Amino acid sequence: MSNQARGEAAIHVDGRELVLRPTFDALVRAEEELGSLFALVERAGSGELRLAEIAALFWFCMAQPHAATREAIGEAILAMGLSKAAAPLKVLLGQILRGR
Q1: HEC states along 6-42?
Q2: What are the structural domain ranges in the chain?
Q3: CA-CA distance, 24 to 87, in Å (whole number)?
Q4: What is the spatial distance between Cα 84 and Cα 33, in angstroms, rounded to a whole number?
Q5: CA distance linking residue 16 with residue 13, whole number of Å
Q6: Nearest CA to 18 among 86, 67, 75, 83?
């Protein structure tokens, strides 16, 4: 179960809940692939964030590494729709900007 007070979010992938936890290590790995986290937040704010970037951020932030493939996370995002995926994305981006 995710704990929003700790900056966690959750998504459902293949019928199970995956906790997303934006740890330092997870965000560093995401930044290495996606580029600057500030630029990522700016793209999200201007509606230019790509599906692949959302899936990658979620994948890097999984509390249990290897609990799902990036493809499965992408499929879960498509299944829930971008409007519902915006809720966990907002939590993660908020943690990036504000911290804990």
Answers
A1: HCCEEEEECCEEEEECCCHHHHHHHHHHHCCHHHHHH
A2: 8-98
A3: 21
A4: 24
A5: 5
A6: 67
Inter-axis angle of helices 24-34 and 51-60, to 10 degrees? Answer: 150
**Could you tell me if 10 and 18 are in contact, meaning their C-beta atoms sit under 8 angstroms apart?**
yes
pLDDT tens-digit series, residues 5-52: 677 899 999 999 999 999 999 999 999 999 999 999 999 999 999 999
Phi, psi of 71 (to 5 degrees): -60, -45
For residues 11 and 77, the answer to whether their CB atoms sit within 8 Å is yes
- Provide the whole-model pTM: 0.92
**Nearest-5° Cα angle at 6, 35 to 24:** 30
Chain-centroid distance of CA 77 in Å reads 10
Question: pLDDT tens digits for 66-84?
Answer: 899 999 999 999 999 999 9
